[in-house]
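Supplementary Text 2. Reproducibility record for the structural model of the 208-residue chain.

All settings were left at their defaults, and a single model was retained for analysis rather than an ensemble. We include the record here because the model underlies the residue-level annotations in Supplementary Table 4.
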Amino acid sequence: SLHLSNNEAYTGTANPKRSDSLIVSVAQFRPEKNHSLQLRAFAKFIAMSGAPKGVKLVVAGGARNAEDFERVTALKKEAACLGLVEGTNVEFAVSIPYSRIVELLGSATVGLHTMMDEHFGIAVVEYLAAGAIPLAHNSAGPKMDIVTSDDIGRLATTEDEFAGKLFELFGMPREQRDSMRAAGAKQAQKFTDETFGIDFVKILEPFC
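Retained model, structure tokens:
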């Protein structure tokens, strides 16, 4: 996980570098992360009538071995088949430095997550902490523990739902998105190491 420092976390103030046209996904290039769903939903979103122009999807993640790199190649082919243009409206940022990930999340409008039944979903917390509004899979950890309110993000399951939620988020006034970012940053504080330690002590108190 990233574990953004206090200097890298969203402060609740407007970031002059914050883009109104950037979607970022951070996940290893493994099959269960379902990057294909991201590409299909994004292609459907930008083709919708009234969708904003110039939106870009950056798919960032680590590739551990030859199979992962083959998966990236397959995703690039799928993106091209969907009419996406690498370097223009989609970018595959493979095994990039931590500093680049921090930069991307600090500039993103939306943080995208598409893995079904992920136990927790630390990337979704990192989105909140960095001020990227999460659009996460409507299951397991992200649903039950992290994106618990529309005040901080959105949840989706199908390609059409993801595309529709992207359309909704990008169609909001910037002030509404900034309000969601502030609420999300507050939610992210529930998952810091310090907060975990406090809650863990509270759980143990009856047994001490």
